[in-house]
Amino acid sequence: MAVRVQGKEGKTKEVKLFCPKDVKREAIFDAKVDRPPLTFQYTSGSELLQRKNANKCEYCEREGGYFEIHHVKKLANIKEGTQTWQRLMMARKRKTLVLCVECHDKLHAGTLPDVRHLLK
Question: Rounded to a whole number, what is the largest CA-CA distance in the chain?
Answer without folding.
Answer: 96
